[in-house]
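Re: the request from the purification team.
They wanted to know what the chain is likely to look like in 3D before they choose a buffer screen. I agreed to run a prediction and write the result into the notebook, where they can find it.
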Amino acid sequence: MASGIRDKVAILGMGCSRFGERWNMGAEELLVESFQECLADAGIEKDRIEAAWLGHCIEEIGLGKSATPLGVALRLPHIAVTRTENYCATGTEAFRGAVYAVASG
């Protein structure tokens, strides 16, 4: 009987950019803000990050079609970055992909 991924993945920290009208900040700056908060919350250094998932669905107003800007903005240009897009479920899809990657080793 398959056991699934239960008890194979833990969320160590989270980060979120400050809510509000922030027209003076670009997508990369907002990513960095939430990333730094996540690292502080988890109590880890960024060199522990081995891969990233970017959920993004409106290429005209932000990062374009590539996931590469995420690694560059976070100053982690040599990690694997996966871009996901699934309309209203984009964030969930990115999270799910990351969870399954961690669970699979």
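For the purification team: The mean pLDDT is 89.
Please add any questions underneath this entry.
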